[in-house]
Structures are given as C-alpha cells and as structure tokens.
Design a protein that fits this description.
Elements (H helix, E strand, L loop, with lengths): L2 H34 L6 H8 L6 E2 L2 E9 L2 E8 L7 E8 L4 E7 L3 H25 L4 H16 L1 H11 L8 H10 L6 H16 L26 H4 L1 H8 L3 H19 L3 H19 L8 H14 L3
Antiparallel strand pairs: 1-2, 2-3, 3-4, 4-5
Helix pairs in contact: 1-2, 3-7, 3-9, 3-12, 4-12, 6-7, 9-10, 9-12, 10-11, 11-12
Length: about 325
Amino acid sequence: MLLPAIQKVREGSARAQAINNLKQFGIAVHNLADVHKTLPPTFADAANAAGLPTNGEWDGFKASSYTAVGKTWTLALTPKPGVTGTETANATGTSDGRLSIVWSPTPGSSLGRIAMFNAIASELTAATAKVLALAANDTDRRELMRQALPAIQSPATVAQTLSMFAGPDGRVSFASARAGSASFAFSDGSVRVIRMSLWNGIERAMQLGVYGEKWDALPGADNGQVDAADLSIWRNNFGSTSVAVPDAQLNAYLQDLLRQWQKALEAGDRVAAQKAIKTYRDAVATSAGATPPRISPLHSEALKVGSEILSPN
C-alpha cells in the first residue's frame, strides 16, 4: 500500500535531480567554452568538468545524444521507462550559459510500469504463500485469510504500516522500508526471513539503483501522501496469477477473466465486473481442488485474497 506513494516521491525526486544535473552540466560547458573559446567536443569532457559520471548514468537518468555545434549544445536525459520516470529531458544550451529544458514522454513507460508492478504482485503472492505455510493446518489458514482481508482493506492499516516502517523523520522511504524489513522478527525468525525476502524481491522489481540512482538517499512519503484507498499493487492480480499458475492454458483463461473485470470497471459495469472476478475466484478454487491440483493450495489462497480485494463493493 505504501509503495505507490513512495514511487511518486521517487519519480519527483529523480526529475528534480535531473534538472539540477543539467544545470551543473550547463555551467561546466559554459566555463569550458570561456577557457577554450569553443564548446567541449565530447560528452566525457563536459561531464568530467561537471563532476558527473562520464558513463552518463545520473541519479536514475541516462544521458545521451550530446552534440556541440557552433555555440549550441544539446543533451537528452532519459529515465528508466516507467521505473525512475516517464518523461525525457531534452536540454539545449549555449556557450554563454543559457539553458532550456523541454520534457517529452518517454517511449515504453506504460509497459515498464506495468512490468514493474506485475513483478511486485508476483513477489506479494509468493510472500503470502510463505505466510500461509506457517499455519498449522487448513483451518488455521482460512482463519488467517479471514482476518487478513479486512485488515488489508482498513484505512487504519495505513497508519499502522507507516508507524512500522517510518524512519527517524516519520516518513517512509525505500531506505526505512528496507530497515524495517530487516529488523522485525518473530521469535523463530521466520517472519523476518519472509519480510526480508519480500524486500529483496521488491528491490529487484523496482530496479532500485538503476542508472546510478542513489535510492537509499531518496526522501520518503508521509501520511498525507498515502491514500488509504490506493491498493494499486494488490489490485494488480495479473502478475500474481502469472507466478502462481504454471499451467499455461489455465493461466491464459484467468488472465482473460482479469481483463474482463478491468474492462467492465472502466465501463462502469459493476455487475459484469463482479461476475468476472467471481468466475476467476471459482476457477482458482476448482483448480486447486483438482486431482492433481493445477494450482498449489497456498497459492490458491493467496489469489483468492487478491480477488476479494478486486471485487467491487
């Protein structure tokens, strides 16, 4: 629930840092032009003078397409599409220090973001299955899920989670979330292992550190930036289904039901949306009860929790 808010902070911070880096780059180009009476011929010359990495990987953006013609230079800064940002900065500067930055949509951002949140959904499903495995029997598992569902949907959960993962400044960042994942444990250590494993999966899914990103220094989100109704990761069952259902034919059928649910909601047809997600849930239950099972019982329970959250009220 907190990740969408932290991601927004991440993107905003990366964009601001991109602007600062371009200003720093522009000043260096201007100073070099003053000394040598010409613009630096290569990107490496200018980046080196600006004290920026010459590989072009600057705080979540990748520098490319440097040109120096006459008294004008150009440079593009592109984010990891959908991960560190969705817009590319196209900078134009002059030897006398003027700088213009025009932002344009980065191709592939929508697909990049979908892939990222699908991967997170997969990690959540795997973590849920691990938690269920701690239960002694099926009755305990059902009771655990019965209690978990309203807790996930409760606005109070946001405040509790913020308190659990907040850093010294009271805000939740990637760094404080990682520290919280590592420090909390039950007496047997099992929950700590699950939470740390989930964090490692989130770190991979969100590509923290890509393009020289200093993710552990990114600012965090506070209570005012976290929407209690923002269940966008939990609502994304596409990735969960992919990781939990190895049967290709069944996987395709369940994914199609999720697409029907999504289209119905977009069209405002709550009855059709409810029907699609109920069919999904019934298919999951039937497949888990088949001989042999087409979905593991633990993954079945995890998917059913996700489908309950998808159900229109």
